[in-house]
Specification:
The complex is a heterodimer of chains A (376) and B (264). With 376 residues, chain A is α/β, with parallel strands linked by helices. Chain A has helices spanning 30-44, 61-76, 88-100, 115-146, 152-166, 171-196, 202-240, 243-249, 254-292, 297-307, 310-336, 343-374, and strands at 7-10, 18-25, 48-59, 80-84. Chain A folds into 2 domains: 7-100, STAS domain (Transcription Regulator spoIIAA, 2-Layer Sandwich); 117-368, no CATH class. Chain A contains 12 helices and 4 strands; from the N terminus they run E-E-H-E-H-E-H-H-H-H-H-H-H-H-H-H. Chain B has a 6-stranded mixed beta sheet with strand order 6-7-8-3-9-10, sandwiched between helices. Chain B has a 4-stranded antiparallel beta sheet with strand order 2-1-4-5. The chains are: A alpha/beta (376), B alpha/beta (264).
Chain lengths: 376, 264
């Protein structure tokens, strides 16, 4: 319970002020006392100040902090500071605190670095991360070559397991998203095509839009959010729990054992899911055309057959494969770069998703340029 | 000092934790006096940590009564009793449970900023004092991941003590620490008790810590699911005939491993 009145400043004419304190000198009361004292000492600048603790019933660390801080405050301003009638319990507590106190505030955070320093640090971090990523790609390539040796058989089981988690279990999500995307493309194209009287070419728009672009991109986003993040979190947690160290001392090659099965699984799942997304997307477009836009079903199917050339499928699948590979590499790389502190897992997981999505869009732009050059 | 015996700060009556029909603990009753170090002993898996969680309001219990620093918590009591209780207790977790994204300084400062109206200058002084008390005065700007196990434990203690609690609960404060570091923690707990008047409830199976610091103790047993012995450590060690208590205090290898001719 808070004390009723906790301090009183007595100041007789021509004499130095005496501060009487009452009750418990604890964290509930020292805040206002400190503010008042600082203000009145700054204004009046007495030669000395006396704290009379006769009526003080108890003290806590905040109270001790006040006395200690007040002493320093007065010393810095040339004011003599005295404690009077200190009860035994309070004195014992205060002495104990003083004995152990270092007085300097060592850990208090200093000013944060300026913009230029932060920019510099950021650039150095990014460049070193990029260097490490290139090195990592080299390692993965090397171990995938050496995989054809002794341990291929045991890795096959791992690959199968991961293929199921990242591929089969993502199917429903991919079907739902791509189906909706096909519907969106159909709706968006319908109005402008109607104006030109070429509504039947809606099928072409859906096929090209879905197979070349939307299907691989949707698969990429799903893989980055679902599997890339899971890889980063999984490997990161293993690092925190020293499981990676345990594997290393048992002479497991981390890249072959942890990274390769995951990356290969994603690289395989990418084109497979893209095929599924193609089917779902075109079906979504078909449903929209027939049910909402009153186009003839047979005409739509005929047009799809015409538009769906192998090149459209291959380009999409090349993208799907590359996106899977990139996301797998980034997910595992982020997981392995996790620091020793547990919160780094969350940080690396976020990084893996953000970089994953960024890099697949970058790759998408790159592929679109290449395909354009070759006329695919 | 065995605390103020007429004025228990914690009373636990007929406590049952777990599920009806499958309790982890049942019929647990004891009281802790103000200003003493009270230890809950027992082998791993006997429900020590469960009891600690029930006492700190982290684990709801089936029946019984827990009264700590004037607040009744448990079935039928309001949630705000637990909130009021938490402003009067501190908990030192087994791992230290420091927030990994904050420096030590910020870890200790967090409760002070959140739950007091102290001006920033005094908060800074209190944080420094708390870190000084656990001998981490110069490590305030380090991150928890950079600390050794013993330092984490001490930092956890500084944070648990940030708001000057009346009762400090410690879950295995010295397990896994080397003997000199463990003794440092023991010393700190004793200082908190004698100088700051804190009541300490300790959950432990480290015998040396138990012997060093505890005034009274109870022992739990996993199969009996309740208290099997109570008293001072010395009295349990010397006077108890219970084989479970003896097995806990007298660590001996099975006689079949002793070489022929070697005295057991």
């Amino acid at each position: 319970m808070m004390a009723q009145t906790f301090f009183n400043i007595e100041k007789a004419e021509g004499e130095e002020p005496v501060v009487h304190l009452y009750g418990r000198l604890d964290r509930d009361v020292v805040g206002p006392l400190w503010t008042t004292m600082v203000r009145s000492l700054e204004e009046e600048r007495p030669r000395q100040i006396v704290f009379d603790l006769e009526e003080v019933a108890g003290i806590d660390t905040a109270g001790a902090a006040l006395l200690q801080r007040m002493e320093t405050f007065c010393a810095n301003r040339g004011i003599a500071f005295f404690l009077k009638n200190v009860p035994y319990a309070v004195d014992e507590y205060f002495q104990y605190i003083r004995e152990h106190s270092s007085e300097t505030l060592y850990g208090q955070p200093g000013p944060s670095p300026d913009f230029i320093s932060r920019l510099g640090q950021w650039s150095v971090d990014k460049i070193s991360a990029m260097g490490a990523f290139v090195e990592f790609i080299g390692e993965v390539t090397w171990s995938s070559i050496s995989l054809f040796g002794r341990s291929a058989r045991s890795r096959l089981y791992e690959l199968w397991y991961h293929l199921e988690t990242v591929g089969a279990q993502a199917m429903s999500l991919v079907v739902a998203l791509s189906g909706l995307m096909g519907m969106v493309i159909a709706f968006q194209s319908a109005s402008s095509m109607k104006d030109f009287g070429i509504s039947i070419f809606l099928a072409d728009a859906v096929v090209i839009g879905v197979t070349r672009e939307m299907a691989p991109l949707m698969v990429g986003v799903v893989l980055a959010g679902r599997s890339g993040a899971a890889f980063a979190a999984e490997i990161g947690t293993m690092k925190i729990n020293e499981e990676l160290d345990a594997l290393a001392v048992m002479d497991f090659d981390l890249t072959t054992f942890l990274v390769l099965p995951r990356v290969l699984a994603l690289a395989l799942a990418g084109p497979l899911l893209t095929m599924l997304a193609n089917a779902a997307g075109i079906f979504g477009g078909f449903l929209t055309a027939v049910l909402f836009l009153n186009l003839p079903a047979f005409g739509f199917i005929k047009e799809v057959k015409f538009a769906l050339t192998p090149v459209q499928l291959y380009t999409g699948m090349i993208k799907g494969f590359s996106f899977g590979l990139l996301i797998g590499l980034i997910g595992c790389f982020c997981g392995l770069r996790t620091g020793v502190a547990p919160e780094n897992v969350a940080k690396q997981t976020t990084t893996s998703v953000v970089s994953g999505i960024f890099i697949i869009i970058l790759a998408d732009a790159f592929f679109s340029g290449i395909f354009n050059v070759y006329g695919w | 000092m065995n605390g103020d015996q007429d004025n228990p700060i914690i009373t636990v009556e007929n406590l049952m934790v777990g599920y009806t029909g499958n309790p982890v603990l049942e019929e647990v009753s004891f009281s802790v006096n103000r200003g003493e170090v009270f230890t809950v002993l027992g082998p791993s898996g006997c429900g020590k940590t469960t009891l600690l969680k029930a006492m700190t309001g982290l684990l709801p219990f089936v029946k019984g009564k827990i009264r700590i620093a004037g607040e009744d918590i448990g079935p039928g009591h309001r949630r705000d009793a637990v909130r009021r209780l938490r402003s009067r207790i501190g908990v030192l977790f087994q791992s230290g449970a420091l927030f990994g994204s904050l420096t030590l300084w910020d870890n200790v400062m967090l409760p002070l900023v959140e739950f007091t109206d102290l001006p920033p200058e005094l908060i800074a002084t209190v944080v420094q004092l708390k870190l000084d008390l656990v001998k981490l005065g110069k490590d305030g700007n380090r991150m928890p991941a950079e600390l050794s196990g013993g330092m984490k434990r001490r930092a956890g203690l500084a944070r648990a003590m940030a708001l000057d609690p009346q009762v400090l609960f410690c879950d295995e404060p010295t397990s896994g620490l080397d003997p000199p570091t463990a003794v440092e923690i023991d010393d700190l707990l004793l200082e908190l008790k004698s100088v700051l008047g804190v009541t300490v409830v300790l959950v432990a199976h480290e015998l040396s810590t138990v012997e060093n610091v505890s005034d009274r103790c109870i022992m739990l047993d996993g199969e009996a699911k309740t208290i099997i012995a109570r008293g001072t450590v010395e009295s349990l060690k010397r006077e108890s005939k219970d084989p479970r208590v003896q097995a806990f205090f007298n660590r001996k290898v099975s006689s079949k491993h002793l070489e022929v001719g070697q005295l057991p």
